[in-house]
Amino acid sequence: MAKGIVGNGTIGGNGGNHFWETKYDKGAMVEEIIVWKEGNILRGLKLSWTDGSDSTMIGKSSGSSQSFTFKVKEKCTEMVLRGNGIGTRCGHIEFKTDQGNSFSWGDGGSDNYYMDVGSGFLVGFQGRANLDIDSLGPLFLKPLKSVHSEVDYGDFPNGAPDPTHITLDTQDFDGNHEYEWDFHGSKTKTTTSTWSQTLASSFDLQVKVKAGVPELAEVESTIKWGLSASSTHSQAEQDSSEIGWDVHSTVSPGQTVHCEAYCFQGTSDVDYTSTVTVTFQSGETLQFKESGTFSGVTYSEAKTTVNYTPP
């Protein structure tokens, strides 16, 4: 049995051709299952995956059909298969989920064969088929331990939007005599970082993301995009902090001083590729590639300008 897959057998006979229908090595799970029945046998099976693709037709789309669509992170808590009563075909499939849903289809034999559902995540089926489902067995992932995603932003910051000038405060000073003025203050700014990817988020574990964070920094008196050092993050983070300024000098009689405090805001939507590593409680690991999008808002440190108008 492939690594990370529960070792269930198949129920039915030995006719037809062997099939192994799964995309678990690409990170996809079963999103929808359609089963056809006719008499006491299952005639056909087709799957839709969480990556948006469909399986090939297994068996034949003949007779009456029934379908079931899994919700995000919905898991099987029980699955039962039956033969056709004479050991030549698979005749029945039923399962229950952790969200209170159930599926039952087929009029086969009376002997129940309970499958090991492992983690509960259904990732495909194996068996034998030609014009019917000769034999059938589910492919479930083993119990999970962790999910990690290591991000590669490619050629970032190429294509990143220019930072936006944000005025924080202004103040004017003037008078008929010389005095020292002081322009100071602070503003609260909230930075946000979100790494979005569909397949890694389909598991019922918090995804740990290893990535740098797009940020703004001053390089040779110019605010430019850069990346922080790579570290481990949750998929969605935010942080509020104070950015402050304090500048002072002297105004002469008849002179006017105009002060502005400002910062730069950077808003980014960056496509990335990631290597996702799923670790099972058995110690086995599964790796696959997945695209994602980083969305974030960040701010530079506060800066000030001071303009003097002569008397």
From TrEMBL:
InterPro entries: Aerolysin-like_pore-former, Jacalin-like_lectin_dom, Jacalin-like_lectin_dom_sf. Residues 5-142 form the Jacalin-type lectin domain. Transmembrane segments: none annotated. This is Jacalin-type lectin domain-containing protein. It comes from the Eukaryota. It holds the Pfam family Jacalin. PANTHER family: AEROLYSIN-LIKE PROTEIN-RELATED (PTHR34007).
